[in-house]
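Protocol step 4 of 5: obtain the predicted structure for the target chain.
Materials: sequence only (see below). No template structures provided, no constraints applied. The aim of this step is simply to have a reference model before the mutagenesis design in step 5. Sequence pasted as it appears in the construct record:
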Amino acid sequence: MGDNLRASTTPVEADAYLIAVPTPFKGDHEPDMVYVEAAAKSIAPVLKKGALVILESTSPVGATEQMAQWLAEARPDLSFPQQAGEQADINIAYCPERVLPGQVMVELIKNDRVIGGMTPVCSARASALYKIFLEGECVVTNSRTAEMCKLTENSFRDVNIAFANELSLICADQGINVWELISLANRHPRVNILQPGPGVGGHCIAVDPWFIVAQNPDQARLIRTAREVNDSKPHWVLNQVKTTVADCLAESGKRASELKNCLFWPGIQT
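Step 4 output (structure tokens):
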């Protein structure tokens, strides 16, 4: 790979470390930070004075501070922002990734990045690193706001999708074509309803809103409800399919295998 890129299965000494590991939730929708903790503890032995550590994983508010605490416990010989402020030996920041699968290399360069340092010096160090390759803007804030920013982005999308999905349920009960309804409503200059679907999948939008709910159970009522609406939609779709197939079988007298083959005939939308 030459001198520009080297791979290693274990952490090595470096000027900067970017931690981008999974942050799933547990069975009770509590954030599971075990991978972030493991990553932090794996780089701790090779940290040197002046190093920069950036957390990119979508995380609950306070995760960056917790990561800094894990590092401080592992390396008492070094000072960290929560101890020494801008004079710390190690700089720590949070910068959430914003990429679309299939467009990762493009969006890594083009998209604006939110930089949340634990101190202004941490933010400046992190911004300088990203500006090496970034064409978008580095927008500086603190670590807690940056963490909440990523959760807000995905929760906003989840809530808007839930509204469209809930409309589809209501329209089904009312005998209204939801697609026509949304098309008509979107003619209003300040209305832009999304298209309903079978729910929300993936490891981001379907997960991240729960981080807000877990930390703010009494306040995050709308976000919780949106998650419940989108989580229930696949079951509704499945029931609709079962009912439709049963009706078709009853009307046509065909077997299920024959009906399945019909889905691939020309002119049939799947």
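Step 4 remarks: The two ends are 45 Å apart (CA to CA). The mean pLDDT is 92.
Proceed to step 5.
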